[in-house]
Amino acid sequence: MASSDNIPDNQGGNSKQRRRFRKAISNLIGNKTSEELLQSRTSVQKVSKVSRSRQTVVYLRGFGALGMAMGIASMAIPTFFWFAAISLYVGVLLGLLDVAFAETEVPVIVRAILGVVLLGFGLGFTFEIVLYPSKVDVQANWFKSNYKEGADINGISWKPEMSELRVTVSNNGERSIDHVNFEIYTPESYEEVKQSTSLSCNPVEKLPVVSIHDSAGNVWHRGNQHFIRFTCDSIPAKAPLEFVIATVNEELFNNILKGQLSSASVYGPKRKPKIVEVHMYYNINFRPYKYLKTIDVGGDNE
User: Fold this and answer.
1) Phi/psi of residue 271, each to 5°?
2) Mapping DSSP to helix (H, G, I), strand (E, B) and coil, where does residue 222 land?
3) Which of 11, 87, 217, 275 is the most exposed, fewest CB within 10 Å of its CB?
């Protein structure tokens, strides 16, 4: 028969076992809950990173589209052409990055086609506009041109003291050049300048003619001009633009100093200008170009 003294010990032993069991269960549940919370936190962080990544892609995609739109719109104003070109290149680059790396459900073949289209657009813009060569050539020739007095030479009523300077612009390219601003600087004065071709051009900033009276009552008109400027709408491909300049050798100031102002001394002998300086500013397919050269004058000798 078992002793009654052993009963509390058995109960105490069972109580300790129950406490140990509850502690083990608590630890097990606590550890599992911690792991679940940790996994949940990691998942939230991953979702947050994905969300930020998608927002970044959306922003870059919008900026790229905006850059391309601004680039195309800005080409209407030649002053902003290079800003437009940079905007287009940025837009194309961001578009290519979006197609290549963005997480999307768009099929690979569709993304490949979009990438080829964007790349083709960028290459076409580069070689057909940005790097397209300008083939403009300018020549100058001088002639004594002893025409009959009063002869009509391309709209100029000829005078004995005049000589003829012809400046020819040739557009040897396959495309027209537009919005042409054409400037000529000549060391010799001129009295008249006319266009011998029939393109749409208008003179700009023509200086006033100075009238001088000599002691005999004669009136002399001195051009006192060395700068010629025209604006032209367009020069077609393979077409020339030519100006006829009636130059004169004016020895007026020297004669005034000598007190010898007369009909025989107002104009010196016909004199060939050695050079002319030509400045041209124009556009080809929206891109601005400039032609700045000093040109040796050909034609007759003095």
Assistant:
1) -130, 130
2) strand
3) 217
Q: What pLDDT tens digit does each residue of the chain (302 aa) get?
A: 444 444 444 444 567 776 676 666 556 555 555 555 455 555 544 445 445 555 555 555 666 666 667 667 666 777 788 888 888 888 888 888 877 776 667 788 888 898 899 899 889 989 998 999 999 999 999 999 999 999 999 999 998 889 999 999 999 999 999 999 999 998 888 888 999 999 999 888 655 555 555 555 555 555 556 788 899 999 999 999 999 999 988 776 556 545 555 555 567 788 899 999 999 999 998 899 999 999 999 988 87
Sign of CA dihedral 174, 175, 176, 177: negative
Tokens found for residue 229: 């400027």
Taking the C-alpha atoms of 96, 97, 99 and 101 in order, what is their torsion angle to the nearest 10 degrees?
160
CATH number of this structure's domain 136-299, picked from the four choices 3.40.50.300, 2.60.40.1170, 3.40.50.10490, 3.40.50.1220: 2.60.40.1170
Domain ranges of the chain: 12-130, 136-299
